[in-house]
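Record filed below.
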Amino acid sequence: MAAFRASPTVIYPNFRRRQSGVSSTVFSLAPALSERGVSLHVLGAGLPKGLKSISLLTALDILFTGTGPRPIWHARRNIEMLAGLVLRALGGRHHLVFTSAAQRHHTAYTRRLMQGMDAIVATSRRSASFLSLPATIIGHGVDTTRFAPADQRPLRESLGLDPEALYIGCFGALRASKGTDLFVEALLSLLPARPRWQALIVGHAEPRDRAFVDALKARLDDAGLSERVTFTGHVPDAAPYLRAVDLCVAASRTEGFGLTPLEAMASGIPVVASGAGSFPDLIRPGVTGSLFETGNSAALAAALAPLLDDDARRRAMGAAGVAHVRASHSIALEAEALRALYCQLGTVAQSVFPARA
């Protein structure tokens, strides 16, 4: 096999200060790609501890100077595509890559920006089906060292949770598109007859969604359940909370890719998810979790009930989920596929970097 002659140089712009699902994929990929010989630089703010960003001046130096293989600007948002196009119009020598996770037809503006890309990555076959341009399908992966089964008792104590209770969790921004209301509706019907269980709702609400969240809290209070349902608000890192629950719900009405089910399964947590995004491609119904009809709170409650009542079944699904993610959805597989794409763009010789699980 060919020896590795040069490292692909890649800039990941992250033009959103508050962490989002898109940001999480960037943050997770950075160390995995670096381990595989990619000279990776993150440009932006709001980065997690341990992940350093480069300055704008350093980024400009990478993009506008040098004589080796062209660097790569890998965007995931419209504003990041636009910035990459403007910088190239000003003389930047970089290739442009865009990752599309959307499972809908793009706006005319987004399509126009995408026409200027040198390569497009779709995170699933379904996402690729909405594109009018050729795309390389590379699904998101999970860091199976960060997301792994935890000793839950000390973890819960460190988070201020009851170590004796059982927890069902819902993660992500608190809004209708994420199905937060569907989760609460299911809790209203399920929790009264199951005193062992408590619930976590982990995520922030934008100002426009606060009335929506206040109404959900009022319904829980009226039902006498407010003491058993914890709204954490924004947390800098949701991973400890995810690893601390016994069952995870992903109730989105709409979704791009949706990493939460993979993160939960990697942590040994079974998942009950809607049919949104890539959830049907990620979950093995009856083996690692269950699927329910998108937007149907009664269907969600019906899917949850047998798992809430069967400890052995949850444990078996959790173990199956760990094996499933490590075999098919690790961050190592995603990083290796992206590295191969970068090498093709930069005409860099392929190297021998074994994929790590």
Observations:
- The chain has two domains: 9-141+330-346, 152-328.
